[in-house]
Amino acid sequence: MKTRAAILKQSPVKPPFATTRPLSIETVELADPGPEELLIRMGAAGLCHSDLSVINGDRPRPTPMALGHEAAGTVEAIGAAITDFKPGDRVVMTFLPSCGHCLPCAEGRAALCIPGAEANGRGTLMSGAIRMSCDEVPVYHHCGVSGFADYAVVSRHSVVKVETDVPFVELALFGCAVLTGVGAIVNTCKVQPGQSVAVVGLGGVGLAALLGAAASGAERIVAVDLSEEKLAKARSLGATDTFLASDPDVVEKIRAATRGGVDHAVEMAGASRAFDTAYRITKRGGLTATAGLAPPTASFSLPAVGLVAEERTVKGSYMGSCVPLRDIPRFIALYERGRLPVDKLLSSTGPLDGINEGFDLLHEAKVVRHVIDFSA
What we know:
The protein is of the alpha/beta class. The chain is built from 13 helices and 18 strands.
């Protein structure tokens, strides 16, 4: 079948994207789904910094590639081997397929699925197939989803069926921002009621983490960012303390306000300086986690004696250390009960044709989440 998709033909591309037009809306040929694949009609897809990092070259990927990894939609057709999905099912896509059989999956660590990571690196579906082409040239799949398209073929290992009436423009956020941000709080850090949490970097994932901290019963929630507007947003979402990251005394001020630091500090900016701030505001015996995807060349250093003498813990968090089949439905349930107001992360919506302008908004930090609404 033929469908529209937003294709990145080369990388890196510099802003302003409304002028440089890194994504072109093309008519592409979409092959039928394989035995363990599904045809999805997209309902909505969010613009995320992980997409932006492919455009600007921070995370090199093969091109041409159909971008988009945070998405939700409806099953249109199923492969011959699929028995647990049917046309009409509503689904949320995940940006890392999990096979369920490799050692990390068997240990309950779906975010570390080995075949899934290998497929994402190749730009293929889990089967190794590429189901999209443009002018007979194969078009790679971004994170096995390629959500910036009217239709996409995805692996059964990349979708979670959900039974909910939540609108697609909100439901899409559960595939990345909520999965990563809330998951980092409840799975990676295992925040307990009454503890203190700091979130450094208040993009969509960071603000989702803040929502997760509030839902977990954290008593003190510290928000840190370079933007006064983002700090104001954080206060409206439950932050008890906010600090400008550009303040040269920010670490000392946070440590003083929290009597020596927080129990858990989570870095969400994808920058070494932000991680350094997160580590320095963590208390003795506390945990510093990072879910920000820094460029491959970035690094950080730690004082080894402090790591030992203060019994500090440093952890990475990918996909919120989530098991999507378990966590997406329970996060949606929290939203439906009013305990996780994910809709407040939604800044704006627009059609696929405006995607380059949407990435300018994201690059300029003018939105938390801009979402492509395929019903628009």
